[in-house]
Amino acid sequence: MKRVGYLGPHGTFAEEALKTQPDLVADEAVPLRSVPHVISAVESGEVDLGLIPLENSVEGAVTVTLDMLAFDTDLLIQREIDLPVVLCLGAKPGTRLDQVEVVLSHPNPLGQSRMWLGRTLPEAMARVTNSTAEAAQEVAKSKKAGLAVITNLGAIERYGLEVLASEIEDHPSETRFVVVGQGIPGRTGHDKTSVVCFQREDRPGSLLAILQEFAARAINLTKLESRPAKRGLGEYCFFIDFEGHIADELVADCLRNVAAKQAEVKFLGSYPVAGHEEARKKRRAATKAWRTASAWVDDLRAQVRPTGDLT
């Protein structure tokens, strides 16, 4: 049995995401306090895998996760998990909505319900916590009146709170989690690769030159995001997700050329995509087409005569 660390405590969206994975449910789940704690636990061997939030469809990237993957660890992404998010406002039993003075939650849920809070609780103060479940715990234990939490229904029920409002997210929302660990999962035919590119020099067209390596090979990018490179003001690195696996020759050739000609590349992983069967079919069709083209080129190259043989 493996040990799987996740952003805790019990009742977080991370735990909810973990429970959607049958193989992970069969392992021992270990709640940890923060994303850095999860990553450190995997690195030290305290747990075998770590499950952490990566991005939200409304609020965007979880920057602490991006930065740690880029700068602070050599762990690789093993898989991704997409979780639909439904946000609830909970408080101690007997608390009325008009009595709420402070709302606690993780930064992402606070951002995802910003307009609802502005309309419904314009005078309430928002306070950030490490996780939604930690916020629920604090509200449940606190003797202060007027505290509420934005979290999921499971955490509200677990910590003995009452729902004051449900479905308070401003827009339909999904959060993507990733499982991190050692090594690269085998190719499935429906995979994604993540890298970080650091430009060797800031010059006109440098990003375009990187992207053209992918375009020239018809490799579809699924994400392009910039973050400070931690080298000085105005210096950025680029997080790139794209379809394919490092075991695909086309992907390997692309990364080989980017690293040789355009930028320093940090590999973050090749792993199965969380998606629908239709996307799997498209990937299988693309793989079949590439293999056909590869066989055609190999056949042509086999016909090349040795140098100097003119017959």
- Can you tell me the CATH class of the domain at 184-282? Alpha Beta
Order of helices and strands: EHHEHEEHEEEHHEHEHEEEHEEHEH
Secondary structural class: alpha/beta
CATH topology name of the domain at 184-282:
Alpha-Beta Plaits
- The number of strands is 15
| Tally of individual helices | 11
* CATH homologous superfamily label of the domain at 184-282: ACT domain
Strand content: 25-35%
Model regions low in confidence, pLDDT < 50 over at least 5 residues: none
* Principal-axis shape: elongated
- How many whole angstroms does the radius of gyration measure? 23 Å
Mean pLDDT comes to 90
Give the oligomer, counting copies of the same chain as homo and different chains as hetero. Answer: single chain
Q: What is the CA–CA distance across the termini?
A: 65 Å
- Helical content, roughly? 25-40%
| Gross CATH architecture of the domain at 184-282 | 2-Layer Sandwich
Largest sheet: 6 strands, mixed
Write the layout of secondary structure elements.
Layout: E1 3-7, H1 13-18, H2 22-25, E2 28-32, H3 35-44, E3 49-56, E4 60-61, H4 63-72, E5 76-85, E6 88-91, E7 102-105, H5 107-112, H6 114-120, E8 125-128, H7 132-141, E9 147-151, H8 153-158, E10 162-166, E11 173-181, E12 191-199, H9 206-215, E13 221-228, E14 236-243, H10 249-262, E15 263-272, H11 277-302
Parallel strand pairs: 1-2, 1-3, 7-8, 7-9
Antiparallel strand pairs: 3-4, 3-11, 5-11, 6-9, 6-10, 12-14, 12-15, 13-14
Helix pairs in contact: 9-10
